[in-house]
Amino acid sequence: MEIRQKAFERVLRGYDKDEVNAYLQSLSQEWERMQDDIKEIRIKYEATEREVSKLREVESSLYKTLKTAEDTGANVIDQANKTAELILREAQMKADSMVNEAKSKAKNSIEEAEYVSKQLLAEMEERVKMLGQHYKTLELHKDNLLSDMKRLAAETIDRVERAKTAARDFDPDQHLALAKRESKKTLFPNAEVEREIKNAMALPSQEVVKDVSQPVFSSEFKAQRSFFDDIQ
């Protein structure tokens, strides 16, 4: 408005009034446009300043958060390292303990197995020794049994041969007469003694009289043997 309403002193042979007014009009319009642009720029600048301020606040907050995160991360990493080291140490201790326990159990198992194997070996040796003695005893029994069987076989064969010989010499009539005399002696035990006494008294005087206190049997009776005696 100041540019449009600007007044100049009039002089002789000065500038063209219309041309000057047109120029002033154009200049004022351009100035208004520039002012509008400046206002718009200032508004944008202020908005930008506000955004920058907000961003700075966010940046500061992010920086603080990042710093806190870094510190927390460092603490977490340090704590994690300490925890991992502690866990690793505990795991190593447990592993060493388990290895030592396994070695001890293996040693005990080996010693127990050796002891049991020695006992089993001793028992097996004792059993083998007993079996050997039992085998020797059985061999001795076998030899004795074979000897007894051979002896019994020889005796049996001898008895059979004697029985065959006796069977060939067996006289049924003679044994029947002998059986009758034995039966008669059983029924009349003193008859044979009396007959012997009578026979002794009838002998000639130069012969010695036999002692009647001793039992007298005929020579025929003594010579006879039973077939069953030979079998026995």
Detailed description of the structure:
This protein is mostly helical. It has a domain at 172-232. Helices cover 82% and strands 0% of the residues. It is built from 5 helices and no strands. The protein has helices at residues 17-169, 172-187, 191-201, 219-223, 227-231.
Nutshell version of this structure?
This protein has 232 residues and is an all-alpha fold. The protein contains 5 helices and no strands. The protein has a domain at 172-232.
Q: What overall geometry do the principal axes of the alpha carbons give?
A: rod-shaped
What's the tally of helices?
A: 5
Distance between the termini: 183 Å
Main β-sheet: number of strands, strand sense, barrel status?
Answer: none
Task: Please specify the SSE layout and strand pairing.
Elements: H1 17-169, H2 172-187, H3 191-201, H4 219-223, H5 227-231
Protein traits:
232 residues, mainly alpha, 5 helices, rod-shaped, disordered C terminus
